[in-house]
Amino acid sequence: MDPLSYLFSLEQFGIKFGLDNISTLVTRLGHPDRAFRSIHIAGTNGKGSVTAMVDAAIRAAGHRSARYTSPHLVDLSERFVIDGRPVAHETLVAAVADVRDAVESLRADGSLTAPPTFFEVTTAVAFELFKRARVDTAVLEVGLGGRLDSTNVVSPIATAITSIALDHEQYLGSTLAEIAFEKAGIIKPGVPVVVGDLTPEAVVVIERIARARGAEVIRASAADAAPFTIGLRGRHQVANAAIAVRVLGVLNARGIAIPASAIASGLAEPGWPGRLDLRRLPDGRELLLDAAHNPAGAASLASYLQERRTMSLPLVFAAMRDKNIRGILEELTPVIGSLVVTRASNPRSADPSAIAEQARALAPSLDVSIEPSPTDALAAAWRRSPAIVVAGSIFLLGDVMRQVGVS
Fold it and tell me: CA-to-CA distance for 189 and 249, rounded, in angstroms?
């Protein structure tokens, strides 16, 4: 089996919390996670945007930087960005092959009693890629939660928690306090943690854990981002930019020089597709792509559509079965002109008929239709309007970007 086929075969093992596998794996690899300085970013929403901004600013300051994010939109290499570019295919294949060899060795001698997950291996691959590229600094986005996420084997020089909202409740808990506890697991002794605008119950949990670990809590506010132009659309990106500014301030205090000009560059051009991402096709048609896949993200998209007075557009929508679909639809149905429901090319994609039923119950007067594939859904939406919105699942965004040839 070729290395990438091996990697994708691990998806069958699903999500597994815990640091035992990744700790064993990085130890066998010679601890590539210690070959660079790391910045660790957690949060329900916004962590990818903050990761992108911080990475771009570090690069603009002249440092060799990398970022690790998930999931990817179109190609696996998007997860591993070095010097602002996704890693080359052959470089990625070589790293996956070496990590696979380490896994097989660990399985053979009994050090790993079960196969690692897809995310555990991709995290080890990221560390290995960044070590081989000799990057100075890597900005790492938490995959899920924080405390037991595979990325949490690193010893960062700065951490951030962008937001706390209900998402992945089956893994992280059903209250904001429980979710905050999982996110706060990335806080390390003596390492400053930057936090965004959080609810009081989340703040109490994070401050308690930070105090116990001797970690300074740095509160970001919109004023921190006020002097800068923010390249990503949406009012919510002001909060994300403010967190990025304060993280970069921590880096400055810790000896990584990031001048104001570099911060400005990172915030203005972070290179982060699929987030209120307006694309115009050669024939003049438009699509607004947004990775809103939980109610809080959907609320940000709805706010943007209201601000832009574009509340009559068709929405192409798909969602994963484990998401709060009703909560997402409650935010979006009041601000769209019609809804075209489809299924993303992911086995976890929810039944379009069930989604449509929920939408009709919430908004009886809304025009709701079902199409079997993203391709059909795009065509149906564009028959209604030359400008459309695509949201509800990152996997749907990837399908659409492949279909229309944008990346």
Answer: 19
